[in-house]
């Protein structure tokens, strides 16, 4: 489509964006949307026609713009099963979200498999892989920061929705782990690369990533919730006495995360931060605390105490750093029939790319998983906590579940890593509290009903400076 034709879509696009799960600015009011780049994948009169586009969205609060990627499909007549994906009408064509269309996802896969280039877009298979069978994709439904389609339970392609210059860390780290022949991630199959037009010219950008699909798998978050549900339903039994005990899985998960860290260190190197580097990590945590304190009163009220715990990170001489996952939680793990896999190495979605690729302590990932065990333990009780307090005996059971699984995870991690994360308790606690502060802000913006979960942990981490970790 030409620029004037695309511009005709803008009013419909502006109305459509806030309803998309991946639109990561739902708390802001859109002032204007503009196209900053577009590339036809097929001729404009093909049926369906496909176009890749980058949009910049500005907001009435005057803050920074956000850029997003779209894969637009157009057809003269829209089949009934695509009506839900319609964005608007331009001339005699209906424009819709292209990933919803099996014919478009089939085309994208075939272009990757056959190593194609169209204008600024490159469709590249990963060298040496066995090409997946080309067929239509089925959009993944559910909670996602990006948009994925699944090809016959053999491959999954993720379109990154935020348009950021540079190699996406999800692709970069999967590539590095592939070179290490990692058994802890799903093998990478290919990618779509494009360019992001900017003031300084066009910069390379990752459009999409194609990976093996882990069939017959369950994600760690659902498995953990099932275990907690069974425990709370019993009430008078302890976590080690109920059928759905999760500790064995938590320990295996610890081993998997340690293996990923070893592979990332081997493939991409390690470093020791000197005093200035450690001070920079501590300052970074303080900045994040300041931002959370501005937005959330409870954080502001405990600012001094939180800052004291965060300063625990300063207690190490020569902090060991390497590339890490950066946003690990139970929902980023898949239990396959063979074992655990880690997915989604993009880092925290709201952080700028240069922050997400900065080497960090592996304790950041360990701490984030410990936080996730807390989340799973108290998720069911959180609804109570927004109204009345959950009964004390259930809170005790939930805490026992969290302690047992946090401890099992650390045991498993230590067995493979050769060092126990709990040996650096002050640093681990600082990373855990930093994550809890982030989560308070995340829940305030995204899921206020869940806010009680990180708030509770924040209070524990601030109050319990002498307690033992994971026990
Ligand atoms: N390789 C895979 N095999 C099977 N399912 C996967 C795979 N990768 C991702 N998924 C599923 O897709 C969901 C979203 O993937 P994720 O990479 O976390 O996307 P996002 O970055 O959009 O959050 C996951 O929760 C998982 O259910
Ligand atoms: O999965 P994303 O990369 O989009 O990560 C963001 O969303 C997560 C929630 O979906 C959020 O994780 C928090 O909630 C989880 C339960 O839903 C819990 O297991 C995690 O421990 C907790 O941090 C994540 O922080 C955020 O970046």
UniProtKB/TrEMBL annotation:
The keyword Nucleotide-binding applies. Its EC number is 2.7.1.175. Keywords: ATP-binding, Carbohydrate metabolism, Glycogen biosynthesis, Glycogen metabolism, Kinase, Nucleotide-binding, Transferase. Pathway: Glycan biosynthesis; glycogen biosynthesis. Residues 16-101 form the Maltokinase N-terminal cap domain. It catalyses: D-maltose + ATP = alpha-maltose 1-phosphate + ADP + H(+). It is an enzyme of class 2 (transferase). It comes from the Bacteria. Signal peptide: none annotated. InterPro entries: Kinase-like_dom_sf, Mak_N_cap. This is Maltokinase. It comes from Actinomycetospora termitidis.
């Amino acid at each position: 489509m030409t620029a004037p034709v695309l511009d005709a879509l803008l009013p419909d696009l502006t109305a459509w964006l806030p309803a998309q799960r991946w639109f990561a600015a739902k708390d802001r009011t859109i002032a204007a949307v503009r196209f900053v780049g577009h590339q036809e994948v097929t001729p404009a009169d093909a049926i369906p026609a496909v176009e890749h586009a980058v949009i910049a969205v500005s907001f009435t609060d005057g803050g920074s713009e956000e850029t997003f990627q779209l894969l637009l499909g157009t057809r003269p007549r829209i089949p009934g099963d695509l009506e839900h994906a319609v964005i608007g009408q331009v001339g005699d064509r209906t424009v819709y979200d292209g990933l919803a269309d099996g014919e478009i996802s089939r085309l994208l896969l075939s272009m990757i498999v056959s190593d194609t280039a169209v204008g600024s877009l490159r469709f590249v298979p990963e060298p040496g892989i066995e090409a997946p069978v080309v067929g239509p994709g089925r959009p993944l439904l559910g909670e996602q920061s990006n948009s994925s389609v699944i090809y016959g339970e053999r491959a999954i392609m993720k379109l990154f929705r935020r348009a950021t210059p540079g190699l996406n860390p999800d692709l970069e780290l999967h590539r590095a782990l592939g070179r290490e022949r990692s058994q802890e991630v799903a093998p990478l199959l290919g990618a779509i690369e494009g360019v992001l037009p900017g003031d300084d010219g066009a910069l390379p950008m990752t459009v999409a990533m194609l990976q093996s699909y882990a069939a017959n798998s369950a994600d760690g978050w659902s498995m953990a919730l099932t275990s907690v549900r069974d425990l709370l339903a019993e009430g008078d039994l302890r976590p080690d006495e109920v059928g759905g005990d999760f500790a064995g899985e938590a320990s295996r998960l610890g081993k998997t995360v340690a293996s990923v860290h070893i592979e990332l260190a081997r493939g991409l190197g390690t470093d020791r931060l000197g005093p200035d580097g450690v001070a920079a990590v501590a300052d970074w945590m303080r900045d994040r605390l300041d931002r959370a304190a501005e937005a959330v009163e409870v954080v502001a009220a405990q600012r001094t105490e939180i800052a004291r715990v965060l300063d625990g990170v300063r207690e190490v001489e020569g902090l060991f750093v390497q590339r890490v996952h950066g946003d690990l939680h139970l929902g980023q793990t898949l239990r396959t029939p063979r074992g655990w896999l880690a997915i989604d190495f993009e880092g925290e979605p709201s952080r700028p790319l240069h922050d997400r690729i900065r080497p960090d302590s592996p304790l950041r990932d360990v701490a984030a998983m410990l936080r996730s065990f807390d989340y799973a333990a108290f998720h069911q009780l959180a609804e109570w906590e927004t109204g009345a307090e959950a009964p004390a005996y259930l809170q005790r059971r939930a805490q026992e579940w969290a302690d047992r699984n946090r401890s099992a995870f650390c045991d498993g991690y230590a067995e493979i890593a050769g060092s126990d994360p709990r040996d650096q308790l002050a640093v681990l606690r600082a990373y855990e509290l930093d994550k809890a502060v982030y989560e308070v802000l995340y829940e305030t913006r995204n899921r206020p009903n869940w806010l009680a979960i990180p708030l509770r942990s924040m209070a524990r981490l601030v109050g319990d400076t002498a307690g033992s970790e994971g026990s």
